[in-house]
């Protein structure tokens, strides 16, 4: 009798785990996993999913590091229609914790990767070269991208050095490139904060955790014409939690540390992996010195599992955020919040007016969803006065075209729930590249209803949506505004969204963006016809 995929994975996993344990014995730096407490170290999970992986390295005090800002990548060449980029994925050392070296898997060897800045309507082509030792797939999250450049989880780029061959790939009918691949992004879409990250089937969690994530900022004329803060006062913030081994390496509880065979994480981390160190742009609890003016912060939650409830607090009181954009770009008009809840993969584009705090204030970006060290994210020190010619106009966008549920031609339901130990499903099905859950027609609007057992941040590729109804109060949350591509669900929650797919037909995925759930099956296909 032929083995099922799962049995095959189990078998392949047993072999590679055994190999990995051997190296672990001879090398202290290797993750061994046996020293995790059965409860995952407990800790301050609040109502977020997941278990804290306790760091073995000393955790530094907060607010010692300066906020790094990832460098903007220059194109290697441009022509009338297109900007061409080259990125090499490779390992490199970074000093994330003081005095220790962390091996990161970086786009160009850095974490976060370099930022790509693009113009709406101008094509971007990125040649990705794989100098790591495992397969990769690159997804542009938020992109309206043709299927063969969307980073489909089995559309893999094998390592250039041949250390992982076609015969090693555990995936049905993969599409394989050897060493590098050119990703083509037409970018006929409005300005927004996107991000690019790894999407290898079954191993996205560890591969992003080790560093494969970067910003991709798309601009257009409408946004450029606004008087929002710019230049040094427009800053991307990639928020991600991580834990560390004693030697400074990232600590991730993979069932198979070689990442070659069995996917997923050790049992107690099945609901998700939480780090005990909060990084912003790759630095632990950093500080940014600001003037008493407006700043535009493009916040991204690049954590595997952790959800945040962000607030601004100083000893002289709480501050507010003025939200100007969400996943899918500018809002019609600004919305002021005291707090914003942010699930993995969500982006919130906010303006913070630091003149609401006196010069000399230290303003902590707090995470009210946690306690202890992970209740703090970073700090803004208001150190000087400066003139401010920026403002937030009442009208931000006149081109925002939200899908209208009244126009929907179909309603579909996707239930996100646990099927069994280590199996997370959509509608009771584990990810299978050959099963299509839905066939929406290009150009039409549909209502998609998502429900959950525990917290699941649900993400849909290609189509942006509007959240119009929620399970708790019926009403969307104050920060559910604008165009979205990811919607957070609380335990036993549901949301209804109006979604529209434009421009491309073909096979795409929707999935939980809790990366451990995603790797353990919570992903499905839809085909735009
Ligand atoms: Cu950000 Cu399919 O992912
Ligand atoms: Cu995506
Ligand atoms: Cu989930």
Distance N to C terminus? 36 Å
* Ligands bound to this protein structure: CU-O-CU linkage, copper (II) ion
Would you count the extended β strands for me? Answer: 36
Detail the poorly predicted runs. Answer: 1-45
Order of strands, main sheet, comes to 16-15-13-18-24-21-22
Overall helicity: under 10%
Describe the model.
This protein is mainly β and 529 residues long. The protein is 7% helix and 40% strand. The chain has helices at 5-26, 204-209, 221-224, 515-519; strands at residues 51-52, 77-78, 82-94, 102-107, 113-119, 123-130, 138-141, 155-158, 175-178, 180-185, 192-198, 213-219, 234-242, 273-274, 277-280, 283-284, 287-291, 294-301, 308-314, 317-318, 321-326, 329-337, 340-342, 347-353, 362-367, 376-384, 410-420, 423-426, 436-438, 445-452, 456-460, 464-470, 486-489, 494-500, 506-512, 523-528. A seven-stranded mixed beta sheet has the order 16-15-13-18-24-21-22, with no helix packed on it. Strands 17, 19, 20, 23, 25 and 26 form a six-stranded mixed beta sheet that branches. The protein is globular, with a radius of gyration of 22 Å. The chain binds CU-O-CU linkage and copper (II) ion (2 copies). CU-O-CU linkage (C2O) binds next to strand 7.
């Amino acid at each position: 009798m032929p083995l099922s995929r799962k049995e095959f994975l189990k078998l392949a996993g047993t072999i590679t785990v055994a190999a990995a344990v051997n190296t672990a014995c001879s090398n202290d730096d290797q993750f061994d996993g046996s020293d995790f407490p059965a409860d995952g170290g407990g800790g301050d999970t609040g109502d977020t999913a997941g278990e804290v992986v306790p760091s073995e390295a000393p955790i530094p005090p907060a607010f010692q590091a300066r906020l790094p800002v990832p460098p903007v990548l220059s194109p290697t060449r441009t022509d009338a229609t297109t900007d061409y980029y080259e990125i090499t994925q490779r390992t490199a050392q970074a000093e994330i914790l003081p005095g220790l070296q962390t091996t990161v898997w970086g786009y160009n060897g850095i974490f976060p990767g370099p930022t790509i800045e693009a113009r709406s309507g101008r094509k971007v082509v990125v040649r990705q070269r794989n100098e790591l030792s495992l397969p990769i797939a690159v997804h542009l999250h938020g992109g309206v991208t043709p299927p063969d450049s969307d980073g489909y989880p089995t559309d893999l780029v094998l390592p250039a050095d041949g250390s992982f061959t076609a015969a090693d790939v555990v995936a049905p009918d993969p599409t394989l490139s050897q060493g590098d691949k050119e990703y083509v992004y037409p970018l006929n879409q409005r300005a927004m904060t996107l991000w690019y990250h790894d999407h290898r089937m079954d191993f996205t969690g560890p591969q992003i955790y080790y560093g494969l994530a970067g910003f991709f900022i798309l601009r257009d004329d409408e946004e450029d014409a606004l008087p929002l803060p710019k230049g040094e006062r427009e800053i991307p913030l990639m928020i991600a939690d991580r834990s560390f081994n004693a030697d400074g390496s990232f600590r991730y509880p993979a069932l198979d540390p070689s990442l070659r065979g069995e996917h997923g994480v050790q049992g107690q981390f099945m609901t998700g992996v939480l780090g005990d160190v909060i990084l912003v742009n790759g630095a632990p609890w950093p500080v940014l010195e600001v003037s008493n003016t407006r700043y535009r912060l493009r916040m991204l939650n690049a954590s595997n599992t952790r959800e945040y409830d962000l607030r601004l607090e100083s000893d002289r009181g709480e501050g507010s955020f003025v939200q100007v954009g969400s996943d899918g770009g500018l809002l019609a008009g600004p919305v002021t919040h005291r707090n914003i809840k942010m699930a993995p993969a969500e982006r919130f584009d906010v303006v913070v007016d630091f003149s609401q705090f006196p010069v000399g204030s230290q303003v902590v970006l707090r995470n009210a969803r946690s306690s202890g060290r992970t209740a703090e994210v970073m700090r803004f020190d208001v150190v000087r006065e400066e003139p401010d010619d920026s403002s937030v106009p009442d009208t931000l966008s006149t081109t925002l075209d939200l899908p209208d549920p009244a126009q929907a031609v179909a309603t579909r339901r996707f239930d996100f729930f646990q099927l069994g130990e280590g199996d997370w499903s959509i509608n009771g099905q584990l990810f299978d590249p050959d099963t299509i859950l839905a066939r929406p027609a290009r150009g039409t609007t549909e209502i998609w209803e998502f429900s959950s057992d525990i917290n699941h941040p649900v993400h849909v590729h290609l189509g942006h949506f509007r959240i119009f109804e929620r399970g708790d109060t019926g009403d969307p949350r104050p920060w559910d505004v604008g165009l979205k591509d990811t919607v957070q669900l609380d335990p036993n929650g549901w949301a209804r969204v109006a979604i529209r797919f434009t421009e491309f037909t073909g096979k795409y995925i929707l999935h939980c963006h809790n990366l451990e759930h995603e790797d353990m099956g919570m992903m499905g296909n839809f085909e735009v016809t």
